[in-house]
Amino acid sequence: MRCMPVCSIIPHIQTRHISRYSVRSTGLASIEQLHEFDVIIDVRTPSEFAEDHIPGALNFPVLSDEERVRVGTLHKQSSFEAKKIGAALIARNIANHLEKNWLEMPRTWHPLIYCWRGGQRSGAMTHILRTIGFAAERLEGGYKGYRHHVLEQLEIMPATLSYIVLCGLTGSGKSLLLNALEKTGAQVLDLEEIARHRGSVLGDMPDMPQPAQKGFDSQLLAKLKALNPDLPVYVESESKKIGTIRVPDALIHKMWESPCLRLETSTALRVALLRQEYQHFLDNPALLQQQLDRLRGMYSNEQLAKWQTMYSEHRWDEFVAELLTLHYDPAYTKSIYSHYPGYEQAPQLCLNTLDNKSFQALAAEALAMHDNFVNNGNKITQEAS
To answer: How many Å separate Cα 247 from the centre of its chain?
Structure first.
């Protein structure tokens, strides 16, 4: 839906040049200049914003979702009538944002405004703010241009970093070790945290839906840009998909080329850890059954019925152990050996208990193994401890 700019609503006030920001007379800014602004304002609808937005941006929509639908429906009948209604709605919403949020802002306030394509919605707000005298600018290309930038950078950025990949069977404690490494000050990339999923058939997190693919991509790129290319990045081995989210090929392939650490954990400890992580499923057998239904076609009805009997009778340890033995372990082992040729000879870390001290000790051991890591290469230099 296109909306006409709101023109001549406020009497013209000469916009003062702000030398601190070198405000462009065109009022246009590029992706490379995002860091120059006091605030980034997304004027798209709440649903557009929820799907994805520039990290750190605030949503001040010039049309609500319902208003956008209303104007879009009217546009099919009469573009002229739609433009009149759209302009009135946009003017009213901008006035509301101005009165509630920006009346106390100084003349030097420097906001960046964007909409879908950097067109009429962002143009309307930018025009009014600049006419008042604020140093407002509009993002050239809008969100569409930003999205192109994200996809382009996700093909480039992963290769600029060096990774140490934590490998280990499902339930071995890789995510907890990654967390312990981060607490020591090591650089980590927690893909499951960004994807809000544990990366398995039972990987859904309670009351925490996964982000849209676009949102994941934006968060991932922001994380990659924040990492120091001169230091190693610890990351957990993942498949190409984490739940519904696809990990960029450039990152997955770079991880496959990277050295790895093997985390060895007994089956008994793995069962205990998964019982903790899957408690929400154990408390809700119907939800568990819904997840296991995804395995239909992979296993016989008899096997699925057997698992259902196990958890219906609260034989949790037996159920989890068999799920590991028959489902998770064969799939993970096949994948890890095909993608990490050095896995068999990789340094090993052994987890003996599930307390925090054990993970802290393993993190220290991992860091001692890899104090000297060659940037962008497969070689690990192990220094004597």
So the answer is: 10
